Amino acid sequence: MTPAVADLWARARDGEADDLSRLAAREGVDGLIERAALPAFRSTALRALGVSQDLTPLVFLADVADGDNDAEALLALDSIVELASAPRVSADPADTVEVREGCDHLLALAKSKRASARRVVAIRALRMLVDRGCSKREDIPGDLDAR
Q: What residue ranges do the domains of the chain occupy?
């Protein structure tokens, strides 16, 4: 890693949006996912994936959201919500399969018996992604809705 790239990672560790955006632009989705395998970079990479330009990291983030580590799961879910809230951009048709896989995994998490904190965020993200074809509104669980 060059000193300039190491500096990007160090700055992004604080979670500032501008620093995360610069890191995401420099490393790309694949680079961020690769670094996420290293514990020292994992939380920063998870946050930076939330500011990427399309939904391609969705499958990776959904896998992390369904994992055993609660802190990482919530970071991944927050990044999914960030992705869902971003304006829609054209995506490479080749990414459609990965996005569908991520949407299906997120829907499975929303329907699971996992901790309700994870399910609430997964449901919120799915509702934000309905207009992008991630899931049908009627398929999203409503058992955790406020009444």
A: 1-52, 53-147
> Full-prediction pTM beyond 0.85?
no
Each residue's pLDDT tens digit, 76-132: 999 999 998 887 665 666 667 778 888 898 999 999 887 788 888 899 989 988 888
SS (H, E, C) the chain: CCHHHHHHHHHHCCCCHHHHHHHHHHHHHHHHHHHHCCHHHHHHHHHHHCCCCCCCCHHHHHHHHCCCCHHHHHHHHHHHHHHHHCCCCCCCHHHHHHHHHHHHHHHHHHHCCCCHHHHHHHHHHHHHCHHHCCCCHHHCCCCCCCC
